[in-house]
Amino acid sequence: MEQVSTYLPGILLAYSAFLLGIISPGPNILAVMGTSLSAGRREGVALASGVAFGSLTWATLTVLGLSAVLATYASALTAIKIAGGCYLLWLAYKSFKAAGTDGVIAADQMEGERISRSGYALRGYVIQMTNPKAALAWIAIVSLGMQQQAPLWVGAVIIAGTFALSLLIHVLYAILFSSPAAIRTYSKARRSIQTGLGCFFAFAGAKLIFSRT
User: Fold this and answer.
1) Per the confidence metrics, is the pTM higher than 0.70?
2) Can you tell me the distance from the alpha carbon of 142 to that of 148, in angstroms, rounded to the nearest whole number?
3) Rounded mean pLDDT, 167-180
């Protein structure tokens, strides 16, 4: 139990960073919204599932990669945390900037011929895996939960938890945002959401940069 209590705060912080990160619409969220609007709710859920499995892949690769690096170069943890912290501070800046601008959320309509649900799932996976910012985002998230000499179960818990959150949240987006009215309601709360995200990312980024372990 003592070992669990040692790593639990970092794991929960990693979960929080991931959860709040997917609240702010990016290419994957907009694709889920657009698919639900244009192709239907079930197709949106299929694409959301593909995005979630993309998150699972990124989380697994990041945890295994960081574990291998830290096993060989323990001092690398400091550099990794500084890099992850700087990325979170950049996200804070982007969130505060977005909160100060006008505009509404515009869901991307998925063009082209109608495809099978497995095709939508594959499309969601590709969207998530080809996101150029995903690697930095996952390094930041995993760094919040991984400490020096952390046991393997910590990485496994981070992987399992973020996958469950990704699947749940993206499927909820597919279900809730299958109507234009839902997107308009979300847009009205955009500034408050972005401000809250900015505050959290600033806190998490500073914590990563100035943490000693």
Assistant:
1) yes
2) 12
3) 84
